[in-house]
Write a structure and sequence with these properties.
The protein has two domains: 198 residues, Spore Coat Polysaccharide Biosynthesis Protein SpsA, Chain A; 98 residues, no CATH class. 41% of the residues lie in helices and 19% in strands. It contains ten helices and twelve strands. The N terminus is likely disordered. GO terms for molecular function: transferase activity. This is Glycosyltransferase. InterPro entries: Nucleotide-diphossugar_trans (IPR029044).
Length: 333
């Protein structure tokens, strides 16, 4: 059993939330990466939501809780249905809000991620020092050690067009609109950060009531951080806080490999919801048409270059059916 760190009651406290779905071994590694560090003496509690994993993860995690002596430092939340990412986190966030001893910060850690250093202390220190900031995201690397993008610009019709077309002159023309920032993005304010490893100020989550429950998976953290920015708060990227991330282990949607694999229907649903909620129906239609036009222009360019199409497999069937048709006929939430 790992001894509990010494705690200073004067220091801000942190709740770590991990939402598990079919990744019990990786979730266990993530839990133990948190327990293995002292977090600068802060009180840290870990909450693990099992989203009704079909392979019995709830029982596996309960057995490991007993075997490894996690005690009251780790609380398990076995759910009977799969809430998705945002709603799964909301299960714990809303419960924490109602506690008289609610933590000062909430740190979301993907089930396929683990701390590589005293990331919680580093992020909390930054938020302590910057009251205008509501969230701080960590730097993320793959298990190989290769850094990946963890800080971003908000998507727009221009970014959808440029990224879908994938043509050098157009990409350069819209380089300041592209969503991904470079993996070596320096420390400082950004539009949004990866939900795989991000710390939020609890007071701001309470103000905004956490994640929008309309989302199942994908874009929910982007929409939440858009609301945070529109409420006048900053989002920080803090790459000195380091996380290792086996990207896509729970969902099989990976940023480097997803272009010619079909996207699940819930991905398109989330894309549509994000634009409806942040840009309105007209803005969502404009962004959708921009992506369709860019993808159509990419087709002959890719053929000439002997490359795969930029769009996901099945895009020209799935996107009109799941996004454009509902938008054009006024189906929205």
């Amino acid at each position: 059993m790992i001894p509990a760190p010494s705690v200073s009651s004067a220091m801000p406290s942190i709740a770590v939330i991990i939402v598990n779905y079919g990744t019990a071994d990786l979730t266990t590694a993530g839990i133990e990466s948190v327990l293995a560090r002292d977090h600068g003496g802060r009180r840290v509690e870990i909450h693990v939501v099992d989203n009704a994993s079909p392979a019995g993860d709830a029982r596996i995690l309960a057995d490991r809780h007993a075997e490894r002596g996690w005690g009251d430092r780790v609380r398990l939340w076995p759910e009977i249905s799969n809430h998705g990412f945002g709603r799964g986190n909301n299960v714990v966030i809303h419960a924490l809000m109602n506690r008289p001893d609610a933590p000062d910060y909430v740190f979301l850690l993907n089930p396929d991620a683990a701390l590589e250093n005293e990331a919680l202390s580093i992020l909390a220190d930054r938020l302590d020092a910057m009251p205008a900031a509501a969230a701080a995201g960590a730097g993320i690397a793959l298990p190989s050690g290769r850094a990946v993008t963890a800080a971003f610009r908000f998507p727009s019709a221009r970014s959808e067009f440029a990224q879908a077309m994938n043509f050098g002159p157009v990409t350069r023309l819209f380089r300041n609109r592209l969503v991904p920032l470079p993996p070596d993005q320096p420390d400082g304010p950004v539009d949004w950060v990866a939900g795989a490893a991000v710390m939020f100020r609890m007071s701001v989550l309470r103000e905004l009531d956490g994640f929008d429950p309309d989302f199942f998976l994908y874009y929910e953290e982007v929409e939440l951080m858009m609301r945070i920015r529109r409420a006048g708060h900053q989002i920080l990227y803090v790459p000195s806080a380091r996380i290792s991330h086996a990207e896509g282990a729970a969902t099989d949607v990976k940023s480097g490999q997803s272009q010619r694999k079909p996207r699940p229907a819930y991905w398109y649903e989330s894309w549509r919801l994000y634009y409806l909620k942040t840009a309105g129906r007209g803005g969502a239609i404009l962004a959708g048409l921009a992506w369709m036009v860019g993808a159509a222009l990419n087709a002959p360019i890719a053929r000439l270059r002997g490359q795969d199409l930029r769009a996901p497999k099945g895009f020209f069937c799935d996107f009109p059916r799941l996004v454009l048709r509902p938008l054009l006929f006024g189906v929205h939430r």
